[in-house]
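User: Before I run my own analysis I want an independent prediction to cross-check against. Here's the chain; please return only the structure tokens and, at the end, one sentence I can use as a sanity check.
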Amino acid sequence: MRTISILGCGWLGFPLAQQLLQAGFRVKGSTTSLEKLPHFAAAGIAPFLIELNATSTTGDWTEFLAEAEVLVVAMPPQLRRAVPENFVAKMQFVLDKLQQSNCKKVLFISSTSVYPDHNQLAIESDTNEFDSQLVLAENLFLSADFCQTTVIRFGGLIGADRHPARFLSGRTQLENPEAPINLIHQEDCLAILTNFIQLPFENQVYNAVAPHHPTRAEYYQQKARELQLPIPEFDYNQPSVGKTVSSEKLSTQLDYTFLKPRL
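Assistant: Structure tokens:
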């Protein structure tokens, strides 16, 4: 039975583990919460308590990576805190552990936040320094000569229990009303990741964003109406800045059709 290890079984990692189990994989999942270990075990996921920070890591990495065909790195960086974490240092620990194992394939979950808001079409080959920690972390894996890495840059994540319209509900003076949205549904995230796990790995980067890009004002006001929430108000006094993230490479090379193209 093929084994997949998922570093970070949270909002995205846990349902990915469940989907992989249904597809016949053996799955190992990590968490930083002791209370979640029985929940993982009950779901059929081999549970591991693993913690990472900028200076150290704890947990049974040897067993976590043993027999794993692919390591899925699903740990979102905490870069918007008042004091951003050193995400690059954390990922270096992961690479060090990976080098000591027999696992040679990595699926690294990244973000389209790496692209600056320059009102441009953003494709994977664009050079940028907007989110240098995340870009540097990607490059750590892509440049490692002992493993093959596929980087997936997801847009804003939404799902049945998670929608940004709820966060913006009733707010006023919101910026960038005419900027396009770049979102992706959880169902598409899981389908894309599952497809990539079963494909040959090579050092490549892919954007993953639903192909529908209405403006922020149009989209969030309409969603607020549908969800019967207070309508957010936008500030049109300043020019809008944003970007349109292209997933053409993903759609063409993976022959992928989005399950939720219009969010």
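Sanity check: The CA atoms of residues 15 and 190 lie 8 Å apart.
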